[in-house]
Specification:
By secondary structure, the protein is α+β, with helices and mostly antiparallel strands. It has 2 domains: about 260 residues, Beta Polymerase, domain 2, CATH 3.30.460; about 60 residues, Magnesium transport protein CorA, transmembrane region (Methane Monooxygenase Hydroxylase, Chain G, domain 1). About 60% of the residues lie in helices and about 15% in strands. The protein has a 7-stranded mixed β-sheet. The protein starts with a strand and ends with a helix.
Length: about 325
């Protein structure tokens, strides 16, 4: 699908390619969402550039993601998609500056694009050109990334409270409680890792974009690009801090699991030690020797029972006195 946005913020959806010879003259942004091969050929014919395919966007080489070809500038970044779900992913988005037009090619629907389109009418008229719109779009993408990190921080705080706060209050939890929390920690780690990968690609793109003549010649766009670059650097540091907290939470959860397992093993160990003396007494008087004086003792049976109880009680209270129970 191809949607063209004019300088007056009105959108024009290009449906029948055979009936459309060219884009309107005042088009400043062409948004291509999951374009077909026919739509790619149409844009190539009208704009006069070679549109990168989906396979081209997946290339991780910097020379294939940031380059200039003729008068057109090609840039590709990885954006976080489906951050609000349990399966966040990265989607590659191409940003092309061809003359006064911005062309975006994407095969997903990142929320940042929806936010940018909704606020497009608030963009000042002097900003409605290709380079300025890209700077504004990058600002929206970075703001959305910051929102994802803030959401992640709040969720990690709640998770930390569940792991430590409730356990400090001795609230009884199922035996697999911490194992379930490990899955939540892994999900948060996956999201933050995707955000860091996205920020790395955005950092490279912003540096390349900042050096373009179209940006250097526009002071307002240049200042905005500088601000976006600083925000990306700050978010990178914040993401690293969050990743460190997640690592601590993971190590602490594993430590609590080990403590619980050690407690269970300690109980079995103490139980075996407590019941060892009674077992010894029962083993002695269970031997089948013919000459055993106690076999003819009238009170031998209650005597042996009392001896087994005493031999079990003494170690138990000894362990309590030592604080091992």
């Amino acid at each position: 699908m191809i949607t063209a946005y004019c300088s007056n913020c009105k959108s024009v959806e290009i449906g029948d390619l055979s009936q459309t010879a060219a884009f309107p003259d005042d088009v400043v942004w062409i948004d291509m969402v999951e374009p077909t091969r026919e739509e790619e050929l149409y844009v190539e014919k009208v704009i006069g550039i070679e549109v990168p395919t989906r396979d081209d966007l997946k290339d991780i080489e910097p020379s294939a993601r940031l380059y200039t070809e003729g008068d057109a500038v090609f840039m590709t970044a990885s954006l976080v998609w489906q951050a609000d779900t349990s399966s966040p992913t990265l989607t590659d988005v191409a940003f092309i500056l061809a003359g006064n037009k911005l062309i975006t090619i994407r095969y997903a629907h990142p929320k940042s694009f929806k936010l940018f389109i909704a606020a497009l009418h608030r963009v000042p008229e002097q900003w409605r050109n290709g380079a300025s719109l890209l700077a504004k779009l990058l600002e929206t993408i970075v703001d959305r990334t910051a929102e994802i990190l803030e959401l992640s921080v709040s969720r990690i705080d709640i998770l930390s409270t569940h792991v430590f706060g409730d356990r400090a209050k001795k609230v009884r939890k199922p035996s697999n409680y911490l194992e379930e929390k490990l899955r939540d920690i892994a999900a948060h780690h996956r999201l933050v890792s995707k955000v860091r990968d996205s920020l790395a690609s955005l950092s490279r793109l912003s540096s390349f974009f900042y050096a373009l003549p179209a940006v250097q010649q526009d002071q307002a766009t240049k200042e905005l690009c500088r601000t976006v670059s600083r925000d990306i650097q700050s978010l990178n540091e914040h993401a690293s801090f969050i990743a460190g907290n997640i690592t601590f939470l993971l190590d602490a959860s594993l430590g609590l699991i080990n403590i619980e397992q050690n407690s269970i093993i300690k109980i079995f160990s103490i139980a075996s030690v407590v019941f060892l003396p009674p077992t010894l007494v029962a083993s002695i008087y269970g031997m089948n020797f013919e000459f055993m004086p106690e076999l003819h003792f009238a009170a031998g049976y209650p005597y042996s029972l009392a001896l087994m109880v005493i031999s079990a009680v003494i170690p138990f209270f000894f362990f309590r006195w030592k604080g091992w129970l």
